[in-house]
Design brief:
Number of helices: 16
Order of helices and strands: HHEEHHEHHHHHHEEEHHEHHHHEEE
Radius of gyration: 45 Å
Distance between the termini: 93 Å
Strand order of the largest sheet: 6-5-4-7
């Protein structure tokens, strides 16, 4: 690929998210201004006001007339991150990037372009709007870099590299952690929708009181939609136990403190007093943890490994709640409504426990434990059989020892011929003794005389064939010496 083609592809990757995001923000401002009954539409004013709106979409804190605004809508942030991820993925495909190292240029170009755009808007912003230049430089760069990395992860081999270098237990735990975080967000969404549905009359009254015209109604509706993810995160804090606070107002399943709240239909579901049935909602995070454990019930045959996987998932969920809790809250003016926050430390611990405890129980008892039990039983049965065989062998050996000792006592005073007559018939003994214990024994002169069958300490001598006796007379040295050449039978 030529250098010119690469440069054009990288330039498009850097500029297209900026232009598209700025255009969407300007279009929304133009619609609201044009339809509002008390607003004066000005194209230049819309273009200038779209700059701070673009920064707000990237979670850059603003200062409006001396009042800090850190609680920024998360829905535009999700939209711009999706746009950047798609742009980065298409650029990687166009440049044929297949290795993780090749994605660094794409991510770097996109992050640098957003950092320069942020610092330029912060410098050009005037009037009552104030933006911290350092935050305007760093925050868009970090957000865009993270979104671009997610976009090129699959095309540039990040996923494959993670599979090759990370522990499979950790990978399964991370996937289950994403599922658990999504389940907890769904639990928060269900809680928020339930509270809003029960407060439908309040929603209508707030729209009528604070957005009396078509343009004002459209602007209020867009404002509520933009802050909808924020409300879901605050509801997540409530349903997991720690709760949330808006200034002096604190709402939790086991604690409540009332006070003034903004007149926004999005907050119509905020209660005026504590209800005794609120702890029932804790079943929702329990179900989320059980879902994670059930998804990991077949991840490994060892229950302890499954518990490790659930622990990794819980840790990821705890970290994720800290991130989204930080993004969902912030400063809101400098009065009674400041700040909007979730206790991040307690939320992180609570989210981990809601995933780890029910998930661990579901993974432990829902997985394959019968195979392990069966193998242990088989090993125990094998050991029992082996012990029985060894005991039987010891009893047989003791019996043979006693018989051998008895035969020895009876044969001490008898002659060699009588000992030969008292030997047990080998035809009967061979049937009881293994042939593998037989060994040939040769006489001192080299003549084969017998085969011995040895079992333990008992020696059984096979009956010898009839051999003619011969005598050997020593006429030179002395008296006649006669030897029996039947051979010596030795144990």
């Amino acid at each position: 690929m030529s250098r010119g083609v690469r440069c054009r592809a990288l330039a498009a990757a850097a500029l297209s998210p900026l232009v598209a995001g700025y255009a969407v923000v300007a279009a929304v401002f133009a619609v609201v201004t044009a339809t509002a009954s008390q607003a004066e539409f000005s194209p230049l004013g819309v273009v200038l006001s779209a700059g701070p709106g673009w920064l707000a979409a990237y979670q850059v804190p603003l200062d409006i007339g001396g009042a800090p605004l850190g609680v920024l809508p998360l829905l535009p942030t999700v939209g711009v991150c999706f746009l950047i991820a798609r742009t980065a993925a298409s650029t990687a495909q166009r440049l044929r990037c297949t290795e993780p190292g090749q994605s660094g240029l794409i991510i770097g170009v996109i992050a640098a372009a957003h950092a320069l755009a942020g610092i330029a808007i912060s410098v050009l912003a005037g009037g009552e709007l104030g933006v911290e230049p350092l935050a305007a430089f760093l925050v868009p760069a970090l957000v865009s870099a993270a979104a671009a990395a997610l976009g090129v992860a699959s095309r540039c081999g990040f996923v494959t590299a993670a599979r090759n270098h990370l522990d499979p237990v950790a990978l399964r735990g991370m996937r289950a952690g994403v599922l658990g975080l999504a389940a907890l967000l769904c639990a928060g969404a269900v809680t928020f929708l339930l509270a809003t549905a029960l407060s439908a009359p309040t929603v209508r009254s707030l729209f009528a009181a604070n957005a009396d015209g078509v343009g004002s109604g459209v602007g209020m509706l867009l404002l509520c939609l933009g802050y909808l993810p924020n409300a879901m995160v605050l509801s997540l804090g409530f349903v997991t136990g720690p709760g949330f606070s808006i200034g002096s107002v604190t709402v939790a399943p086991f604690a409540f403190s009332g006070g003034p709240v903004p007149g926004v239909p999005l907050l119509a579901g905020l209660p005026e007093q504590q209800a005794a049935w609120w702890p029932v909602l804790l079943v929702l995070p329990t179900m989320a943890g059980a879902l994670v454990g059930w998804s990991l019930r077949k991840s490994h045959e060892n229950p302890m490994v499954r518990l490790r996987t659930v622990g990794v998932a819980g840790a990821l969920v705890g970290f994720g709640t800290v991130v989204i809790g930080t993004l969902a809250g912030g400063r809101l003016g400098s009065g009674a409504l400041d700040p909007v926050s979730v206790p991040l430390g307690v939320l992180s611990i609570a989210a981990f426990l809601w995933i780890a405890v029910p998930g661990g129980i579901a993974a432990w008892f829902g997985g394959p434990r019968a195979v392990k039990v069966a193998s242990v039983a088989a090993e125990s049965e094998t050991e029992t059989d082996t012990d029985a065989v060894e005991e039987a062998a010891e009893e047989a050996e003791a019996s043979h020892d006693s018989e051998n000792g008895h035969d020895s006592e009876n044969g001490e005073d008898s002659t060699a011929a009588e000992e030969t007559d008292d030997v047990v018939d080998t035809d009967d003994d061979i049937d009881d003794i293994d042939d593998t214990d037989a060994a040939e024994v040769e006489d001192v002169d080299g003549t084969d005389i017998a085969e011995r069958l040895v079992t333990g300490d008992v020696t059984v001598v096979e009956e010898l064939p009839d051999v003619p006796e011969s005598t050997e007379t020593d006429t030179a040295d002395g008296p006649e010496d006669t030897r029996n050449h039947d051979g010596d039978v030795r144990d």
